[in-house]
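Notes from the 1:1 (GR / supervisor)

We went over the backlog. Supervisor wanted to see one worked example end to end before approving the batch request, so GR pasted a single chain during the call. The sequence is below; no edits were made to it. Supervisor asked that the structure be written out right there so they could see what the output format looks like.
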Amino acid sequence: MIGIHTPSLNWKWQGNLVVIPALVVGWAFGWLFVKSGKWSEKVIGNFNYPVIEGFLGGVLLAVGTLISKDVLFSGEFNIQSFASHVTQAPIYSLIAIALAKTITTNLGFSLGWRGGTIFPAIFTSLAVGGIVAQLVGPMPHLTVTLIMAVALTIIIGQPIVSIVCLTLVCPVQFLPFVIVTTYLTHWVVNRWTFLRP
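Structure output shown during the call:
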């Protein structure tokens, strides 16, 4: 949910087992999101025909709605309802939303759309977190939080912005995990530059 919230959580020691898979998946998805943007820019970034760009952008949105209405725009208005059921949503639906929204967002920016990547990055990493949470089992909210923290830090490259955004989406109890994860991710990709997208 958007806003500061402290839901009751069922802490389990098995939650420790999700940390490494969540960090790896978060990095992999963040890498994919950024690379998708770079590939989109290479393919159509120098295409300077505004009318055709507008037409292609409309087609892109129309095709996106065939997959899900959640593919449209940045997603900030649907994050709250989406987050409330992401750990119970069908996995195939979450995969479709994560991939489609990643592609449409980055192609759209290459076609001249205006806006930022923060909300699309939160929305798509939330979908990926829901997939992994359903597959690994214990402490699904922790899994989703870690994946979002890593992916968002990789995508926008600013730990403080990632922390502020995730404070409004994730349970307050996970704030220490968010802080450690975002700064650790930022430090690792700056230390070992081959991990950068």
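Supervisor's comment: The chain has one domain: 17-195.
Batch request approved.
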